[in-house]
Amino acid sequence: MNTSKRRPILAANWKMHKTAAETRGFLTAFLPLVDGLDGREIVIAPPFTALSAASEVLKGNKLVSLAAQNMYFEQEGAFTGEISPIMLREFGVKRVILGHSERRHVFGEGDDLIASKVRAAMENGLLPILCIGEMLEEREAGSTYEVLERQLSTGLSAIDNRGATQVVIAYEPVWAIGTGKTATPTQAQEAHIYIRSWLDSRFGPGIADQIRILYGGSVKPDNINELMALPDIDGVLVGGASLKVEGFAEIVSCQID
Ligand code: 13P
Known about the structure:
There is one protein chain. By secondary structure, the chain is of the alpha/beta class. The protein has a single domain, classed as TIM Barrel. Helix content is 40%, strand content 15%. The chain has helices at residues 20-34, 51-58, 85-89, 101-105, 111-123, 136-140, 144-155, 161-164, 185-203, 205-208, 224-228, 245-252, and strands spanning 9-13, 41-45, 64-68, 95-98, 127-132, 168-171, 212-216, 235-238. The protein has an eight-stranded parallel beta barrel, surrounded by five helices. Helix 1 runs parallel beside helix 2 and helix 1 (20-34) crosses helix 12 (245-252). The longest helix has 19 residues, at 185-203. The radius of gyration is 17 Å and the shape is globular. The relative contact order is 0.16. The mean pLDDT is 96. 1,3-dihydroxyacetonephosphate (13P) is lined by residues 13, 100, 172, 177-178, 216-219, 237-241. The site of 1,3-dihydroxyacetonephosphate (13P) has 14 residues, from strand 8.
């Protein structure tokens, strides 16, 4: 883990998994396994329909907080099927995942829409986890940094220096999501260095050093320590391996220097 003051975040993105009852069962079994861990933040992002159940079980818990997987940028209105930031806050949601690759590539969300969501999250007291990452064709064509540059510059276009320290970036190479392929430590560290240097040129070194950059893409109990040992990896965003109580408890119990 990095030697900076960045507190690591270990986050579960459950995607479209778990009912409210399953969420309650998971958290009731999970909390005793992580009790007493310190020096880290654990985040759970269940589906919208399970936020209420999760917030009841997590009430008063200082270690584990709630995130949503998406939101719309308006507070209310005629937007059938959408969820607003104030609706999320009602359940004690602290963070919101925005621009996840499945939102981008399955549901066609573009950088401008994602930027509006990032701005709206900040304006409504939710902390964005902005996901960025290249597709396999883009990596093979040598355009990884160009893609990251575009996703960062548009996604963070409304964020000022004060807001920037509150934002979390998740680097999730699309080719590593749900495929069992993890970026090698060198690939992950290189991308994270690029992202931090971009943040540095946009917000200045004092701020870039405080921004947490998470890695996501086939994180598992058996690769977590290797990933967390990299100096610019400040945590992880875990999909499939976060669905099992013991496996996710093992991930969040990773070694942190
Ligand atoms: P997997 O851990 O299942 O590869 O998913 C990663 C991810 O998309 C987290 O947001």
